[in-house]
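User: Thanks for the earlier help. One more: Cysteine hydrolase. Can you show the sequence and predicted structure together?

Assistant: Of course, both are below.
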Amino acid sequence: MSKQALIVVDIQNDYFPQGKWPLVGVQAAADNAARLIEAFRQAAKQVVHIRHEFTSDEAPFFTPGSEGAQLHPKVLNRPDEPVVLKHFVNSFRETELQAILDQHGIKQLVVVGSMSHMCIDGVARAAADLGYGVTVIHDACATRDLEFNGVIVPAAQAHAAFMSALGFAYASVVSTEQFLAGSRTQP
């Protein structure tokens, strides 16, 4: 089996209820992400954390150096787990993510985090385009209600639409339970 890494994308304080940009279902998604982090740690597999900061203090959330831009306590990295700082939707763009994965011989990525319709979509598509096998854990991801031309798209529908699209051509999309029951985290 190819070497596998867990990519924990943007589970940061601003996405939680007291933050600047709260997501629907973020607590449950973070709890599932924490379960997956623990499973990867127990299997001695690579965990890579992604942390987004905008480059301007005028950003609506994740402002540079703010408490809101810090990783949430539910998913804090250990000293041996890298934290990749990004400034764009795609976690590979202008970051060391691919170099870290290549250094460890990683070929399979398991993706969790936020937001389903933005950074999860971006990293999953980019990873697939770069040749990685990708699994997205849908119930370890969260998003928020969206709006387009005056039409409100509830978070659950936005999430389902993006998971469906990723599952069509870019990733295997499974639940936390399905993933853990499939023993995919065994060494």
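User: Great, one quick takeaway?

Assistant: The longest strand covers residues 133-142.
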